[in-house]
Amino acid sequence: MMRSWFVRLFAAALTLGAVTPAGAQAPKPATVIPSAPASAASSPDYVIGVDDLLHIIVWDNKELEQQVSVRPDGKISFPLAGELQAAGRTVPQLTTDLTERLSKSVKSPNVSVMVKEIHSFRVFFVGKVSKPGVYPIKAGTPFLQALTLAGGPAENADLPAAYIIRGNQKIAVDLRRLIQDGDLTKNVQLQTEDTVVVPEIAIGTNPQEMLERRIYLLGKVTKPGVYSIKADVPVLHAIFLGGGVADGADAASAFIMRDGHKIPIDLWRLIQKGDVSQNVMVKAEDTLVIPDGGEVSTAVFIMGEVNKPGPYPKAETLSILKLVTLAGGFTKFAASNRATLIRTDGDKKMLRKVNLNDIMDDPAKYEDFAMRPGDVVIVPQKLF
Asked: How far apart are CA 255 and CA 278, in angstroms?
């Protein structure tokens, strides 16, 4: 039945001219978000967004030619002009701003700004779709076209209950009526940063999570995640639980976070030199981090019952639902109503229970809150 629904969906999208040409392949979701074609930016009304790649030319001043990315704070840096706000500006507006700044140092500057790659127009698919993830789109892309990129609804999708989270709005989209009945009033246009949620058909209730002694392994371990311990264990034992140190790890820079304090551990000395002074005891609620080239300091982590657990960069650009989407969505064993957020605030370590179902169901009431560097989100397993 689900397959026939998707065949109808694809046919409807073809009727609307909303799918890629024959023979073309839809992009696959990935942790690194691919760029959309920059043709949409040729319009003077195109609004520049975060992560867009700009090509800036100052004619007769070859040394000033630059390719710059729009930073998460919406600004760019340009020689002789300093920092300028780019996100939220059109190409002509940014061109005018740059010309005014450069005129103080360059005689009659002739500035051209082009958007080489669009990274800012994107939507997030989470829940019961075939390929949860992040997809670049053009502004105003119809729902059906975007849904085909995500592979259509998956088995056990609750089609009438699908919806879009846009800011603090929840916009209902009855996919059953759209796909089966061809009701094009449901084929709404998506906007950048929309989160599309296709819930699972509820078949029962989740049992209460058991309380246990836990440790958290992050970064360059083979199997990052949450592990139960009966008593304190040496760090080598903890690493063994996580499958060992992964390739590319900066073993000498490992550390434990405990009660807001950072305890450095030189795993290289421990493993290569047998320095047992580094085989410290790992206690319940400790977080053991094995970094890779500094990525840990600016990343956010998600572990447990998601399809792609691990660290994700640019934490400041993510909400908790977008993090779940980047992580490939929930596994079929996820207890998404009992997630935990671990956040270090100064010397304090905060644990916050998060019902992700509530956030998806009513974003106006339950905030899809922003992530911070170093945050850890844990999605536990259902108990049967």
From this structure: 10
